[in-house]
Write a structure and sequence with these properties.
With 372 residues, the chain is of the alpha/beta class. The chain folds into two domains: 237 residues, Queuine tRNA-ribosyltransferase-like (TIM Barrel), CATH 3.20.20.105; 96 residues, no CATH class. The protein is 40% helix and 19% strand. It is built from 15 helices and 16 strands. The strands form four sheets. Strands 4-14-13-12-11-10-6-5 form an eight-stranded parallel β-sheet. Strands 1-2-3 form a three-stranded antiparallel β-sheet. Strands 7-8-9 form a three-stranded antiparallel β-sheet. The longest helix is centred in the C-terminal third of the chain and has 26 residues. The protein is globular, with a radius of gyration of 20 Å.
Length: 372
């Protein structure tokens, strides 16, 4: 089996929906949040810890793993699942975003992208074919096509040119992809122009992908620009395939996007903020080093059932961060990923019970927007 998507429920007041995605290594419920394991590890977690808190699918990254340790080693290890001891579904990102953000880009031609590795400056050439080959070697359950992900611009001509390249690359990716049991997702680009997004969607959808993603959001655009486009495009995506919004975001972004019909999310927020001492809670984001917490013996979030909240106080967690103890980042990452996974569970339950709109409103009312 490559991938099967079953739509299990639809909200009547919004475009929110629930579903079950089945892959060769098992299924996951949508809307889903995928913790990010860029370098073959979700930072600070063992796979057993991820399973314990209910992570059903995680994400790996082709660009990073190609650079280190290299695909030959992962191939010899028997694939990325075995290499990192993760048994459940995994999606790998193609590295398009990293090539255009992290690496020093040299040039993009219709053939591919030439850039210098962010790690050692080595010149690398990525083509759609190589990126498919990398992900076939990793053996992920869902692979993403290599796309051009230009920085934020309002220059329509540039965005159109880039869109054409991404569509051509998508076509070549479909043509060379051959790994059985690995699904392939296309990526819709088109910047912040609804007409270009629609065109990109149409031309990408007709290539017959197993699912479709929206790329090129959250790249430094002015606040609100994403939703102007997302509210137009999300509902036009094929209903019978998973819809994935790449790299977004905050709890509020997830709620908003679910309401527009998105099924899958990934973001480094819970682990990155966790490592830096910020915890997501129902009231907003809190910075644990804050002096107010020195003698605060309550848990991070009184409504949270994670291991960190069941056992430790804000005062203790603050102490760990102040002393640079490694347990601090571990516990806050654990809490944050748990928080995101629980949020998805509650979202799915609310959609199933026909009260997503109320749930969203209640959550938004209780959440301090300024803290996000
Ligand atoms: Zn917690």
């Amino acid at each position: 089996m490559k991938l099967h998507f079953e739509l299990t429920g639809k909200d009547s007041g919004t475009q929110a929906r629930t579903g079950l995605v089945s892959t060769a290594r098992g299924g996951f419920l949508t809307p889903a949040f995928m913790p990010v394991g860029t370098q073959g590890t979700v930072k600070t977690f063992t796979p057993a810890e991820l399973e314990d808190i209910g992570a059903e699918i995680i994400l790996g990254n082709a660009y990073h793993l190609y650079i280190r340790p290299g695909i030959d080693i992962i191939r010899r290890a028997g694939g990325l699942h075995r290499f990192m001891a993760w048994k459940r579904p995994m999606l790998t990102d193609s590295g398009g975003y990293q090539v255009f953000s992290l690496a020093r880009l040299r040039k993009v031609t219709s053939e591919g992208a030439v850039f210098n590795s962010h790690f050692d400056g080595r010149e690398l050439h990525f083509t759609p074919e190589l990126v498919v080959e990398i992900q076939e070697a990793l053996g992920s359950d869902i692979a993403m096509v290599f796309d051009e992900c230009p920085p934020y611009t309002e220059n329509k001509g540039e965005v159109r040119k880039s869109l054409d390249i991404t569509v051509a690359w998508a076509r070549r990716s479909v043509a060379c992809h051959s790994l059985e049991n690995q699904a392939l997702f296309g990526i819709v680009q088109g910047g912040f122009f609804p007409d270009l997004r629609r065109e990109s969607l149409e031309r990408t959808a007709e290539l017959g992908f197993d699912g479709l993603a929206l790329g090129g959001f959250g790249i430094g655009e002015p606040e609100g620009r994403m939703y102007e486009v997302l509210s137009d495009i999300a509902g036009r995506m094929p209903e019978d395939k998973p819809r994935y919004l790449m790299g977004i975001g905050t709890p509020l972004d997830i709620l908003e996007s679910v309401g527009l019909g998105i099924d899958m999310f990934d973001c480094v927020n819970p682990t990155r903020y966790g490592r830096n001492g910020s915890a997501f809670t129902r009231r907003g984001r809190m910075v644990i080093r804050n002096g107010n917490y020195a003698e605060d013996f309550r848990p991070l979030d009184e409504s949270c059932g994670c291991y960190a909240c069941r056992n430790f106080s804000r005062s203790y967690l603050r102490h760990l961060f102040n002393c640079n103890e490694i347990l601090g980042p571990r516990l806050l990452s654990l809490h944050n990923v748990y928080f995101f996974l629980e949020l998805m569970k509650e979202i799915r339950r609310a959609i199933g019970e026909g009260r997503f709109r109320e749930f969203k409103k209640d959550f938004e009312t209780g959440y301090d927007r300024d803290s996000r």
